[in-house]
Design goal:
Six copies of one chain form a homohexamer. The first copy, chain A, is mostly beta strands. In chain A, 5% of the residues lie in helices and 37% in strands. Chains A, B, C, D, E, F: Pfam families: FdtA, Hexapep.
Chain lengths: 283, 283, 283, 283, 283, 283
C-alpha cells in the first residue's frame, strides 16, 4: 500500500505487505523486506536495506550517500525507528533494536538495544514482556544467603555473606559450594568509559560467574526467549551465566571492577559473537 | 489558507484562519484551533490537538501514534514550536511555551516555559516584555538592608544583614519586621536533581517567604500579567510572594537548600495547581 | 607532700594537700590551690596559677615567661593535664577541662572541654557521668515523628517528617505545634572554619530551636548539672534549648548551615557569657 | 536539474548547475549560488543565501523566519550540511565548514570548522588532505630538545628541557635562542569554558609563541593552503606562529592557562579577523 | 650502671647490664629486663615492664598509672623508644618495634612495627637488613609476564597480562598455571579505614594469592628471618604467600578492594595468630 | 651562670654569658657559644653546637647521638627553640630561625624560618618588625594598574589588567613598560609538593619577575634588613625582585605554576646560595 503522495524511485525493491505513507521519499538503491512500514515524510535516500517487519517513523532520514567509509546501511528485522530518527552513516541496526524519537545514530546498534539522544547512546534493552516473580539483585540483597532463579533459563543470582566490621568489610565465596563450579581462570574488566558496551556474546561450553567488586555495571542475560537486566553493584552478589547464554555488559560506573570466574581456559573458538548463530544453536 | 502542495486528511478538523504550508502532512486524528500556522514540511501524523494561535515550524514532527501509554498529545494556545522540533509522546505543551529549534520533547512542558535540547530541558521562562527599573537579587546585594519592589505585583526582594566574621558568618531576620509576616510553618526543599522543576502553583491565602540558605535556585514569580525570574544564591536575600502569585522553582544546584516560611498551616485545598484557574482568579 | 627530689622555689605559694612529685620544678611566680597534684618531672616555670583539685601530669610544661602578651596563665579548678602537655602562653584553662597527653595548648580552653593534638583542638566535652536511656539524634532518626526528652533538663530533640521524592526532598515544621514556640527571629550561621567553636553562652529568657539544614555541627547542652552532646546532621532533626541552658556549638563541617529560631528579638543584655554566672543563676 | 517533485517558489533565485531533489521546498527569499545540491525533503524556507558548491543534505531545515534578531542566514561556499541538520537562526556558516548529520546550529560556524550535536559544538577542523611526515606535540615530546617544522608554512614546534625533581619540576626557554624572537609583550588566557573557541585571526606583522602552561588546549594553524591541529598539553612544548598565520584556539580544558609571547606591542590595526581578507593577503 | 643523678625506687627490679642515665626517674612498679638502656630524663613512672635489650630514649614518659582500664604496660624485647615518646596506657609494644621520636602511643604496637605521630600510626615495619636484588611490584610492573622470587622464602610476585583498550581494560589469570594453585575459596576485603591494620597472622597449611583489584594496600610478608613489604596497587599484580608465612595487610586506600584466593576452605584452627608461636613453628 | 641543679659535663664547652637553668643536662660533646640561654629541664645530650645568642627553651631535647648518618647538629646564632622542642638528627638550624613549642625537627631549618608541628613544617618566616604602610598582593588587587613599592628595598608589586569575559579571561604585560626589564629567559616551576621550599638564594646581577599563573605560592623577599612575605595567587599580579635580593619560594599549592622572567641568560656563577655571603655583599 503505497500512498499516491509518496515518491518511490522505480529502481527501489519493495517487499510484500509494505506500507509507504504520504510525503515519503524512497531512493533507487533502497531494498525493503516484507511488511515494512514507512511513515509520512520519511526520507530513505539510501543506499540502505531494511529487514522484514521493521518500522520507519514519520520524518526519519536514512541517507548514507555522503558517507564514503564503505560498508552498508542495514536495518535488520523487527527494528523500530521512531519519528525523526536520523542515520547518515553506514552502520547496522541489529534485530529487535528500538531507535527513539529524534535520535541521531552514528555507530552500529546491537540486537534488542534501545538507543536515544544526539549522538545515540544505549539506554537499555527491550526485555522479556512477561516477567514472573523472579529474583533481582535488589530483592536478593535482602534475602538470605543462597542462590535464586531468574526469568532467564539457567541463570541464577547468588547472595554471599557480607561481614561488616569497623576494621573493614569482608565477603567470601566457596567454589563448588556457593559458586557453582571450580574456576580454571579469572579475569577482571576495569577502566571502562561510562556508556560503553563491553562484551556481547555467548559461550559454547564455558560457564561464567560475575561479581562487580567495585562500582557498578549492568548485565543483560538472554536465553534466546527471555531477556533480563541485572544491576550488579555489590561485592556480595554474583550472577551465574551457564553455557549458551547471550550476555551483554554495560553501564559501567567509572570506578567499576568486574571480576569474572570462567569454568574453562580461554579458547577463542568457544565464543559465539553472532546473535543469529546464537539463536540457531539455542533452538 | 492551505497550500496546494500540502497533504491534509479529510477527517482532520481545521479551525478558522489556519495556514498550512507546502509539503506539510496532516493526519486524520488532528484537530487545529483557530489561527494555527503550520510550516513547510511539518508532519502532524497525529493523533494530536493544537490550540488557538499556536505555530508549528518547518519540518516539525508531531507523531504520537507509536506511544501506547495513553493520554493525548496536546499543544495549548499561544505555543511556538520552532523548526525541526519533534514530539512523539502523549504529552501536554502548556500555553505560552516555546519549543526551540531541533528540540526532542519527551515530557510535558509547563506554561510559558522555554525548552531546548535532546531530550528537552527547561532553559527559562518567557518573561514580561517590558521590565521597568526593578530590583533583582544581584543589584539588591549591593543595596542597603531593606525591602525592594519588583515588576511582579506585591512581590518584594529583601536584603538582610550579613555579618562576616573569621569565626563564621551570620545572617538574621525578624518576623513582622524584616520578614513581612509571622510564620505558622517552615519547610525546606533539598536534594533536588539539577534540572528538575519543583513546585509550580499559587496559593489562595498563604503568603510565602523564600530564602536559599545553601547553593542556589531560581524562582519565577508571575502575577498573571508580569513574570520575572529571580536567582536566589545568598542566605541574606529573601523573596516575598503574596497570596495569589504563581511561582515556579527550578535550576536548583545539587547542594541547594531552599527554606520557605509560610503564613498558614498546610491546607491542600489552598493550593491552585492549574494555571488557567489561577488566571481566572487573578481577573 | 612535696618530694625531696623536687625543686620548689620558696616564693611559690603551695595550697593545702598538694602533692609534688620527684623531679618537678616549681618556679617563684607559681600559685597552687589546694589538693593540686603535680606529677614527676613537670616543669611549672610559671608564672602560673593552678586551681583547687587540678592535676598536672608527668613531664608537663607550664612556662608562660616567654609570652609577653600580658595576662596570666590560669589553670582553673578540677582541670586534668595528662602527661606531656605543654602550655607556654598566658591562657586560661577553664574548670573541668581535660588536656590530653602530649597536647600543646595555644589558646584558652573553655569549661569542660577536652583538647588534644599539636596544636590543641577541642575534641569533645566531659559529659555527664550517668546518662540514663535518653534520646540522641541517631536513635531519634529511627523513631516516629515527635519530641523526645534528653538528659539535660528541658532540652528536647524533635523529629520532623522527611518526605523523600525523586524530584527532591522536603521537611516541614509547624510553629506552636511541632516547634515549641512562635519565633520572633531566625538567624543562620554558615561558613564556619571546621574546628572552630562558635557560640558558648546561655540566655536569660530566650528559647532557641536549632536545625542544621546543610552539613553538620555538634551542640553541647548543659543545665549546670548534666551535659550532653548532640550531632545535628539532618534537616529533619531539631534541638530545643529552653532559657537558662548553656550551649556550645562546634565541629561545624565546612558546608554547615545552622538555622536557629529564637523566641525573642535580639537583646544583648539577655546573654550570659560567663559560665560561673550561669552556674549561680541555675542554683 | 530540479526534481518535478520539489516545490520551488518562483521568487527564489537559483544559480547555474544546481540540483534540487524530490520533496525539497525552496521559499521565495532563497538565493542559491552555482552548483548547490539540495537533497530530498530539504526545507529551505528562508530567508537564506547559499554559496557556490555547497551541499544541503536530505531533510535539512534552513528556516530563519522566526528569528527576529536581524542579520541574515548565510551559508558560504564549499559548505556541507549532512542529513537532518537544522538552522533556524540568522547565523553565518563560513567557507569549508561541515555540519554533521542531525546537528542543530545556534551560533555562527567559523571557516573549515566541523560541528555536531544539539546544540552544535565545534568538534574539529577539516585539515589538509595530505600530511607528510611532520612533527606533532606527541611525537615531539619524545624527541630531543629543539625546533621541528610542521606542514604549515613557517610554523614550528619547540621542545624545551623539562627537569623533573622530587622537589618540583622546571622548564626553561631562552629568548632569541630557543624562542625565535624577543618578546615585547606576554598575555595569558585562562578561565575559558570548555568547548569555547577563543581567538580566530591572523596578524599582519606580529609573531606569536604559545605555551600551554597548565591544562591543555588545541591550536589550529593555517597558512591558507595547509591546516594542522596541535594539542598543547605540556609546559615544555611551544608553538611558533609567524606573521600572516591564521590561528584558532579551542578545546581548552577548564584549568587551562595559555601563555602567549608576542613580538610586538598591542595594535588593533594589526589583527586580521576576516578569513577572506587573510586569504587575499596570503596570495 | 645507674647514674647517681637518676632517681631509682628501691622497689623497682632492674636486670643485669642495664644503663640508667642522669635525670631519669624509675618508679616502684617497674621491671627492667637485662641490658635495658634508659636515656637521660626519661620518666618510667610505671607500672611497666620492659623486656631485654630494649632502649628507652631521652625524655620518654612511661606512665600507665592513670590508666584504670586494667592490664599492663609491657614493652617487649628489642624495642626502641626514641627520644620524647610518651606511653600512658596499658598497652603492649611487641618485640622489635620502633617508636619514633615524639610519638604518643595509645594502642598496642605489633611486632616489628614502626610507629610515629600523635597519636601514633603505623608507618612501616622494620624489614630485613640485607635485601638482595629481588622483585618488587614496581620493578615487576615493567618486567615480562611471569613469576618472580622475593627475599622472603617461598613468596613470589606475579605479573599478569594487562590488555589496555579504549573500551576498557582487562587482566586475566589462570589457576594451576599463572596462579600456583586451584582455589577452594575467594574472599574480598573492602571498606577498610585508611590507617587500619587488617590481618596479621600465618596459616598452617593454606596458601594464599592476593590481588588488590581496586585502590591499593601494602602487604608485609615474613618468613621468620626475612621481612619485606609489598605495595599492591595494580590489578595485574599478584602476591603468592605459601603456608607458614606471616602476613600483615595495612595502608589500605579508602577505595581498596583486596581479592584473596585461598587453597583451602575456611578452618579457624588453621590460623596462627601469635607471632611467638609462628616463630617456633618456623624453626 | 650555671644553675647548681643543672648537670653539666666538664667536657662541654660553655661560652661567655651563658645561662643554664635548673634540671638541664649538658653532655660532653656540646659547644655553647656566647650568651646562650638553656631553659629548665632541657636535655642537650649532644653532640651539638649552639651559636651565640640562641635560646633553648624548657624541656627541649637535643640528642643527635642516635643519628648515625654523620654530620653535625648545629644551631646557629640568634635561634630560638621554644619549650618542648625535640631535635634528634644531625641537622642545621640556621640563623634567626624560631622553632615553635613542641616541634619535632627532622630536617635542616633555613635562615629566619619558623617551623612547627610533628614533624616540623615551615609555617613562615620571621619578618621585619616594623612594616610601614606598604603594598601587599591583597591590597594591590584592589588598586589601579601599576607598580607599588614594598618594605623590601627595590622590590615592587605590579598590578596588571585583568579582562574578564564570558568567553575566558585575559591578562597582559608589556616588557620595558609594565614589566621593568626585557627578559632574556623565562622558566616555570610546577608540580611542587605542597609544603616544600623551592629556591632560596639571591642573584648577583640578574633581575627576576615572578607571576603565579595558576594556583598559588608564597615568596619571601629579603634585602638583608627587611623581609616581607607575598602570597601570589593571581595571574594579574607580578613581583619584581632586583639583583641582590634574597628570595624564598614556598607554600606552593599542588596545582601551582610559577612563571619567572629573568633579565639574564642562565649563569650558575651568578647565584648566591649562602645567606652569610649574601649579607656580606649587601653591606
Amino acid at each position: 500500500m503505497i500512498s499516491p503522495h509518496a515518491c518511490v524511485d522505480p529502481a527501489a525493491r519493495i517487499g510484500a505487505g509494505c506500507q509507504i505513507a504520504a510525503g515519503a521519499v524512497i531512493g533507487p538503491e533502497v531494498l525493503l523486506g516484507d511488511n515494512v512500514r514507512v511513515g509520512p515524510g520519511a526520507l530513505l535516500t539510501g543506499p540502505c536495506c531494511i529487514g522484514n517487519d521493521s518500522t520507519v517513523g514519520a520524518g526519519c532520514i536514512l541517507d548514507a550517500g555522503a558517507d564514503t567509509t564503505g560498508g552498508e546501511l542495514v536495518i535488520e528485522t523487527d527494528v523500530q525507528l521512531l519519528a525523526g530518527a536520523t542515520i547518515a552513516t553506514r552502520v547496522t541496526v541489529a534485530r529487535g533494536a528500538r531507535i527513539m524519537a529524534g535520535t541521531v545514530v552514528l555507530r552500529s546498534v546491537p540486537p534488542h538495544a534501545i538507543v536515544a539522544g544526539n549522538p545515540a547512546q544505549i539506554t537499555g534493552y527491550t526485555l522479556s514482556a512477561d516477567r514472573p516473580e523472579a529474583a533481582s539483585p535488589a530483592t536478593t540483597r535482602e534475602r538470605e544467603i543462597g542462590a535464586y532463579p531468574t526469568t532467564v533459563r539457567g541463570v541464577t543470582l547468588h547472595r554471599f555473606p557480607r561481614i561488616l566490621d569497623l576494621r573493614g568489610n569482608l565477603t567470601v565465596g566457596e567454589f563448588d559450594r556457593s559458586v557453582p563450579f571450580e574456576p580454571k581462570r579469572y579475569f577482571m574488566v576495569f577502566g571502562v568509559p561510562n556508556a560503553e558496551v563491553r562484551g556481547e556474546h555467548a559461550h559454547r561450553t564455558c560457564k561464567q560467574f560475575l561479581i562487580c567488586v567495585h562500582g557498578s555495571c549492568s548485565v543483560v542475560a538472554d536465553d534466546g526467549v527471555n531477556r533480563e537486566e541485572f544491576l550488579l553493584d555489590d561485592a556480595a552478589t554474583g550472577l551465574y551465566l551457564p553455557a549458551l547464554t547471550w550476555g551483554v555488559q554495560y553501564k559501567y560506573s567509572r570506578d567499576a571492577v568486574l571480576l569474572v570466574f570462567a569454568s574453562e581456559y580461554y579458547d577463542s573458538a568457544e565464543y559465539i559473537r553472532d546473535y543469529a548463530e546464537f539463536l540457531a544453536l539455542r533452538q
